[in-house]
Amino acid sequence: MLRGLLSAAPDALVAVNAEGEIVYVNAQAERIFRWARADLVGRPVEQLVPERFAGRHPFLRAGYMAHPTTRPMGAGLELWARRQDGSEFPAEISLSGFTTRAGSLVAAAIRDVTESRRTEYRFRAVLASAPDAIVGVDGEGRIELLNEQTERLFGWTASELLGQKVEVLVPEPALGRHVEHRASYVADPQSRPMGAGLQLAARRKDGSTFPAEISLSAVADEPGSLLVLAAIRDVSERIELAAERQRQALEAQREQSHRLESLGQLAGGVAHDFNNLLGVILNYTALLARNETEPRAAADLGEIRAAAERGASLTRQLLTFARRDVANPEAVDVSDVVRGVSGMLERTLGEDIDLRLDLASEPLVVVADRQQLEQIVLNLAINARDAMPGGGTLTLATSVAAPSEALRPGAGRDAVLRVIDTGVGMTDAVIERAFEPFFTTKPRGQGTGLGLASVYGIVRRNGGDVRIDSAVDEGTIVTVSLRGAEHPSPAGQAHQGASAGGRERILLVEDEVALRDATARILTGNGYDVLVASNGAEALEVFDREATTIDLVVTDIAMPRMRGDELARLLQVRRAGTPVIMMTGYDSGDAPLTGRLLAKPVSEEELLRAVREVFDA
Ligand code: ADP
Ligand code: MG
């Protein structure tokens, strides 16, 4: 029965006497050592020991015989055994000594652990070759395994870490939360990959910390026990790189707006002077045309006037870019503007372009000059059209700025207008210069290079922002962000009154002689009674003399001795409610202006309409 039992044992069993001779082997021993029983029994046990250990083995054996204690398997010793053919295998061996009538014997149970040891070696190789630090933690949070990268990354040795709570790797401020997080993870372990958006920190032995990305997975290696594996990656370098890249982008942006700023100053100065000249040309042309009956001469005058008007529209765009144009900001709904312009666009875009509107359902109120907002939509739509000579889709979209797009986090609701086309797109080099005045890639005579420059000026004036996203052959998205109004209640469109003349008395103040004369003649020609002055101080003298009879003051702003805006202020002190119309080609941006504002050059029609409107109001 005993022999039967022994042959059923899964381990090889070998009994050895005091002399080191094998006295018994079971069937499993024959199998794993590949010896026949007859060739083992009576032979020295060293026959089963690899030759490199065989020399020392008799001493170890004698030592054990002298003090035989039971030694179980898996005592952590890496042992090797030898087969009949001399090959070796890793073995776990348990020993126990006992005495029989035949004397003292030692029984050894030997187990071939080739399989499990291979698995373990592979597992260790995987751990060692992983680029990340890997830490295995049991259900109580104790570190059970780690790789070399962990030692290197955290500055601890493996023996220092094993058995410690994983919290030694967690920075002070996160400690309390970490214990809770660990508990809830253990309760419901789900794999969480790296880059899941979690930005965590880890702590080295010296107390210093570093930003880390951590992935988690859990292995239930036995029922009721859990091993949580954490792979930890130091991402300081990546974060620094990202910060550096962001810094460079900001720097480039600052450089660009600086360049545009100086261009704006230059353009604004030139345009200001040109404006006055064009004003004179336009006014005198109008005066001449009125008395000209000879048809050829009248036609020629028409040409002069048309050219001057084209010039005026160029200088106006330059001034817009320079944010020096005259604007009448009011509360305007951006979607309204888009809706209004789209009607006209339908007709101008042509059949090959599919115009789509994607407008916000809620009001998008900003404070800006309505005409200028229309100008933005128009300029961008025309650029889109030019970019789609073979047709395509043009989308005008408005929306409330998402929190990430907001111009001033936390402030009023900012508006976003997107003009999206499916056209030829732009290279990076073109994007970089697109906002510069006179930058165009279009053939001479087709592009002025002022479209995006004016958009830029209008948007910046509102405190907003404009951005181009585009790639060659992939279309273009121009994103305009505008500051939302603080008190959003859109005003109705200004009504357009008639431009008939009248009999009222007007004080005209203008330092430029030619312009003053021309303007005065236009007003007198339409029935008005006109007094003139060449600057604010002189105007005050006239006003003090004639105050009760003056119905309206029309004044330039930039003048020597006393400016028009200062004059307007003093007039209100002398006689509150005195109507004032100011004309300027250039908004210096210093003082909030009172009264009605007209942009120079002011055409005859504009002037007469404004004057009439003031009186009729
Ligand atoms: P212009 O249209 O007179 O050339 P802009 O200031 O409007 O001047 O535009 C400057 C340049 O930017 C254009 O010449 C063109 O190269 C490029 N551009 C602007 N908008 C677009 C667009 N939607 N698609 C492709 N290129 C564009
Ligand atoms: Mg254009």
Give an account of the 3D structure.
- With 617 residues, the protein is α+β, with helices and mostly antiparallel strands.
- It has 5 domains: 2-116, Beta-Lactamase; 130-234, Beta-Lactamase, CATH 3.30.450.20; 247-321, Helix Hairpins; 330-482, Histidine kinase-like ATPase, C-terminal domain (Heat Shock Protein 90, 2-Layer Sandwich), CATH 3.30.565; 505-616, Response regulator (Rossmann fold).
- 41% of the residues lie in helices and 23% in strands.
- It contains 18 helices and 22 strands.
- Strands 2-1-5-4-3 form a 5-stranded antiparallel beta sheet.
- Helix 11 crosses helix 12 (370-387) and helix 16 packs parallel to helix 17.
- The chain is rod-shaped, with a radius of gyration of 46 Å.
- The N and C termini lie far apart (125 Å).
- It binds adenosine-5'-diphosphate and magnesium ion.
- Magnesium ion (MG) binds next to helix 12.
- Adenosine-5'-diphosphate is lined by residues 379, 383-384, 387, 421, 423-426, 430, 434, 439-442, 447-449, 451-453, 476.
List the main descriptive attributes of the protein structure presented here:
41% helix; 5-stranded antiparallel sheet; alpha+beta; binds magnesium ion; binds adenosine-5'-diphosphate; Beta-Lactamase; 23% strand; Helix Hairpins
